[in-house]
Write a structure and sequence with these properties.
The structure holds three protein chains of three kinds. By secondary structure, chain A is mainly α. Chain A has nine helices and two strands. A two-stranded antiparallel ribbon of chain A has the order 1-2. Classes of the chains: A mainly alpha, B mainly alpha, C mainly alpha.
Amino acid sequence: MNHAVVLAAAGELTSTSTGEAVTFWILAPVAVLAALAMILVRSAVHSALLLVANLFCVAVFYLLEQAPFLGFVQIIVYAGAIMVLFLFVLMLVGVDSSDSLVETIRGQRLGAVIFGLGFAGLLVFPIGSAIDGVHGKGLESANAGGNVQAIGRLLFSQYFFVFEAVSALLVVAAIGTMVLGHREREGGRINQREWMRRRFTEGRQATPLPGPGVFARHDSADTLGLLPGGGRASGIGGIAGTAPESPANGGPADDDDGSGSGPSGGGPSADDGQLGGDDAALAHVGKGEQR
Amino acid sequence: MSPAPVHYAAASGAFSLSWLLIALPLAGAAVLLLGGRRTDRFGHLIGTLAALASFVVGVVLFAAMLGRDGDDRALSQHLFSWIPVNGFQVDVGLLVDQLSIVFVLLITGVGTLIHIYSIGYMAHDPARRKFFAYMNLFLASMLLLVLGNNFLSLYAGWELVGLSSYLLIKFWEYKPAAATAANKAFYMNRVGDVGLAIAIMLMFATVGSTSYADVFGAASANVIGYGTITAMALLLLLGACGKSGQFPLQAWLPDAMEGPTPISALIHAATMVTAGVYLIVRAGPIFDETQAARTVVVIIGAATILIGCVIGCAYDDIKKVLAYSTVSQIGYMFLAVGLGPAGYAIGIMHLLAHGFFKAGLFLGAGSVIHAMDDDQDLRHYGGLWRKMPITWATFGLGFLAIIGFPGLSGYFTKDRIIETAFDKGGTSGYLLGSIALLGAGITAFYMSRLFLMTFHGKPRWSSEGENARHPHESPVTMTGPMIVLAVGSTFAGGLFVLGHSMQDWLEPVAGEGVEGVHTFSPLVLTLLTLVVVVGGFAAAWLRYQARPVEATARPDSEVTLVTVAARHDLFANTFNETVAMRPGQYLTRFLVWLDLVGVDGFVRGSAAGIGGLSGRMRRLQTGFVRSYALSMLGGAVLMVGALLLVWGG
Amino acid sequence: MNPANYLILAALLFTIGTAGVLIRRNAIVVFMSIELMLNAANLTLVTFSRIHGTLDGQVMAFFVMVVAAAEVVIGLAIILSIFRTRRSASVDDVNLLKY
């Protein structure tokens, strides 16, 4: 067709290479699944890891789309720095503060699903019909002297002031973070003796909490044997426990999540699928509500 | 034929001072009202002086007018432009002509006398200063009414006299009857005033001006359609009926007697209530054009004569009897002025004579009431003539004048009205004449009854015991004006009639009375009237002098139906209450209900609805960020959908 | 393959991110969802950059990344300070500003 000839003569990108197509069709489902899993898993740490997976997929897409600079920035800055920041904060807040997935706001989930699907439909179908038969020009000419060089040229010429403004924004963000994170110390400096006194007078867990993902091979004061649902496996722990069969009910905050239902079901709750073990005595430590 | 007084000469010389007539009493009122209690000691003197000064100015103007040519006596003085709107020019000006000057003399003259009388009558009243202030205000208002050279000034004066009347009726406002009577007078006057107001609007709508010159010019030139001018005349008549206590708006006047007696004499007998007559005479050029309205005037006059007379026979309250007598006498005036130019001058003559003798009668009544410790019941009087000879003499002269004793005022003026009524000719003439004649007879009866029960017969009071009374003659400030008024009652009528002086004087304004064909010769009619009057007097004598008078009236069950009706004002109040007041109350209640349920309900309902809705909507503000985010997403979905609809077609 | 398929993918990712914001209560996960949405937007920008044959889209995506970084830093600081006072990282616990 004349039109197509004209387009081809103009160096239009009418279709992508087979390799790109294969990569896309492999990674796109992965990205979508990772994203879906990210919003569905209970543990925030898992969410973060799934997001990293998603970000990697997107980084690959950048590479495929002739944006190598962005692809690497995505990996280094996003998947590297920012996600580390996320995890860091997660650890500060407490890795055991896993999210309950039971909805407390009436109609919220239903609304989210309806509007989400509607939104997706509104975005996807018009795009689908709009892009039918539309093909890009490709970046071969733009990237001729190297992608990084081309972007650098743009950044420091056309977008110079934007670049400077964004730099200022980063500085402001850094200062803002310091302001927000700063805490005035009340009273004098607390020495180790004082810390110890507090720790034992408050009557909470005397020993450090076990690291996440540690399986309770034994039940002792420093390594509590917890059931998959978070219940205490035995009464040996520092605090008088309950009978092994009776589940310790719920965490202090997540009062209505599934964590208390584990033992009675004789198996792992659905949310804990990836941690499962058919041995009921094999307690999982680290999801407990004790802090 | 009535000349169209389209043009008035400009006032000059003494006449340029005519505004002083109004300004003097107005200043008196202002000083007394603004001066407050500081003027308590001498306030009555200021008020009296203001009235007297106004009277002197009136006399000077009258004298100056006498010195002018007969046709050149109407003088208009422009004072200032009141409403100088484009297309609607109202200039306040004064019109001093033959008609207004006689009113000025009556108002200021009788007014001054009653001011003097009030010095004595109100001597013990703590609010005497206020009383004089209101009286001065009344004088100023009434003078504005009669002196204005346009209908709007007249209307302003008309409303102001209504206000003064209201203030003075309720002067003893702590008496519930007085307060009620004042309100009643005010409301019923409003009915008439609305008529007058609409009439003036009609004038402006058709003629484009409210000045006498323009309106009468247009009326005489037959510019205004017959229907319009009839409506105009009837509306003016409504106003006149309201102010003058004529049928069907007569019920307020007797109640107005709750005010102090000098007020009854000045406002509700001599001057204000005759404003209706003045209005009809002044608006003569309009009435001349419409026979229908004139017929209505005559009918109203005749009906009111009988109503006043019949009720006057039934009351035992001396002031009520005099009040109904006033109603009936003004009925005579209406009858006279309704008969056309032939009756204008006669009506005015009777008005002036009536102003004298009725004021005198009221002052006499006040003197009696004063002597009897505020007892107004005729049945508690009797034989007072020995105790109060001056009051007896002056009251007697007024009494003789009103019943038309030959040689006294009433004889000349009332007989002329009867004569003119008969002279109208035809069946209607006979009918009207007979009614007037009958009215004269009944007037003689009830006035004789009043006079005999008060001053003659055996005393029905005692100077000992529980209700001891010590009647005494009144002080000279009270008897003085009574004597002057008695003299006036005696001679005024004769003076007016003598050589047609009054008729000639008023001719430029009222038009030339056509000397009609006499139905009866004057002599026959005079004799006839005399016979009727003597008959009335004789009946009263037989009933109330020859036989002892009961100390208490017989109950309703023992008297005739007519008496019962008369005692109840011919059920005028019942009628008013049934026809006007009750429906008004129901309407008001309905409107209040409508306001409460409908309007307020709507307002409060919408407020409550919005409040309730807000209360519900408030719950959307859950504090959960995620809810808000959901709403945002919903909005985004809607907007994207809408955009796609618009763009994607 | 049509390069515009990236756009559909981006739309899906964006919607998933939206859903995450709506249904997750952990503020940190909410933030991750927001990052997901930003990434979807970035993917769109890069794709359009390719379709239009200019690098402006990539520059935009770069700026978005920078701003996202700043936003994450501040946001996490806020989450931390809230956590310090309220001992909770749930966005539903911060609901005092209501009717």
